[in-house]
C-alpha cells in the first residue's frame, strides 16, 4: 500500500519506504493499493486485484490482470489496456468492465480508455471522453460530451453519439478516405470503418480524402496532399503541410493555416495559395481565412469574407463584399475594399486607439496598423478610443471605459460594458444596448438619467436614437426626431417632442405620453400619433398607451391592448382583443363599434369606471339588431334576464364586479361581455350611450 500524497508505504517490500520526487508507481503481482498525489501520476498495479487512485492531476491507471478498482479522482484520467491478452468491454457510464485484463474492473472518475489489440467495445459517459480501440475490429460509442474516438487498425464501428465528436487517423500507416455523409472509411486504418455522428476528422500524414456532412464539420488533412470537401454546412478545413485541395461546398467555410511554419499568401478570388503550409493549395468555395503566426497576405473575393491574420505583420484585403478583417498582433495593413467592412480587435491584449478618418491606429493589437476603406470597428475589452469618419460607421467598444466618436454620417454606436462616452457627432446616430445583461434606462434629454446594465455610467452626446436590451427598458427621447427601439422585454418608450419612431419589439411595450397636456390621438392599429408630442409619431409593436392630461383619443389594435387615458375627458376604443381600459380622472367614454370588440372569450376590463365623474360606455356604433333594416339602438334591461327579443344589454354584479352583457341575435346568450372591475353598484341607462 503506497500513498504518494501522504508519503506513506505499507506491506511487502514497500514497508517503511518514503518517497520524494516520485510520480509513477509499479506495483507487485499481488493485490496492491496505489494512491497518487497532485501531480500527473502513472500507477501500474500489475497482477492481482488492485486499487488504483490517481488523486489530483491527469493520471494514467494500468490495472493489469485481476479485478481492479480504478479511481481517477480530479483531473482528466486515462485507463490503459494495451497489454491485455484479450478484448475488453468497458462502459464508463455504468462503471463496469469485462474481458481480458478488464474482467471485474470498476471505474470512478476515469474519462479516457485505451483498449487492447483485440476487438474491444468501449463506451463513454456524459463527459468528454477519449476512446482508443487500438488494433482489432473495435466498437466505440462516445455517448454524451465532445469525444475523441480512435479506432486504430481494423474495421471499426465509431459512433460519436451526442456532442461534437472527432475521430483521428493520425497514426495510420497509409492515406485514408473518409466520407462522413455516408459514414464510410477506406484505406489505412480507416479500411472497413463505419462512422456515425462524427463531426470532425483528423487524417493521416499521407494523401487523404475527407468529405463532410450537411452539418458543420472540421476536416483536418494533416500532412500529405489531401482533398478536403466540406459539403454543406459551415465547415473548418485544415490542410496542413502538402498541396491540398480545399473545397468548402455550401455554407460559410473557413480554411485554417494557424500551424503553418511560414507566412501564407492566399487569394480567395483566384483560389491560389503559396507560402508555408499553403504552398500548392487550391481553394474553392471557401469564404474565410485564418492565417499563420507570420506575415501573411490574405485577399478576399466578392463575397462577405472573414480574414484573420493572426500574429505577424499581415496584409489583409477584403475585396468586394461586406468583410471582417482581424489583423491580430503585428503591424497590419487592413483594407476593406468595396462593401461595408469591419475591423475587429476583440482579442487585443490592451486598449486600442483607432481613427477611421485618418486610418491611423495605436495600442494593443492595433499598434502600427493602417486601416483603409473600413466602415466599422469592434474594440477590445479595455478602454478604447474609436473615431469614425464622414461616412456611416458602426463602432463597438466592447468592455472598458471607451470613448467613441461617430464623427459625420448616420452612425451605430455601442459602448458595451463600462462607463463609456459616446458622441454621435453629425448625422442621425443610434446607440445600441442590445447586448446588455440587464435592463437599461436611457433619457436623451439634457441631464437625463442614463443607468442600468451596459448603460451605467455612460455619457451620450449628439445621439438621436436608442436601441434597448432584451429586458424591461425605459427609453426617453429629447426635443428632436428620435427612434426608440425596445427590442425584447416589456419596455416603456417616451418620445417627447419631435416626430418619433417608437418600436417596442417583442414583449408588452408601452408608449408613454403622460407628460403631455395637449389633446392626443394615438391609434395602435395604424401606428400613428397626432397632437402635442405625439404629432407625426410612428408606433410599431406597441401594446399599451398612456395618455396625458388632455382629452385624448386612444385606439387599440386587434390584439390585447392596454389604454390609459390619465386626466382629461378621454375616449378609449380598444377594438378587438381582451383589452384593459383605464380612463383616469375626467368624464371618459369607452367606445365599442363592433360586437367582436369585447366577447365572452376575450372580454375587455374597464379598470376605473366612475359614474360620479361621468364615465360612459358607448355602444352606439354597434347595430343592436344586425338582422333587421336600419341601425337600431340597444335596450337596457338593468339586471333582468334577456327576453329573446335581441338588441338587449344587461348589467349584473358578480364577485364584486359588474358584467355588462349584450345579446344581439335574441338567443338569450351574451354575444358581448365587458367587465367593470371593482364596480359593485347597479348601473342605469344613463351610464350608456345605447
TrEMBL record:
GO terms for cellular component: extracellular region. SUPFAM superfamilies: beta-Roll. InterPro entries: Hemolysin-typ_Ca-bd_CS, Hemolysn_Ca-bd, RTX_toxin/Mannuronan_C5-epim, Serralysin-like_metalloprot_C, T1SS_VCA0849. The keyword Secreted applies. Gene3D superfamilies: Serralysin-like metalloprotease, C-terminal. Coiled coil: none annotated. The keyword Transport does not apply. It is found in: Secreted. Keywords: Secreted. One of its GO terms (molecular function) is calcium ion binding. NCBIfam families: T1SS_VCA0849. This is Calcium binding hemolysin protein. It comes from Tistrella mobilis (strain KA081020-065). The lineage of its organism: Bacteria, Pseudomonadati, Pseudomonadota, Alphaproteobacteria, Geminicoccales. The gene is prtG.
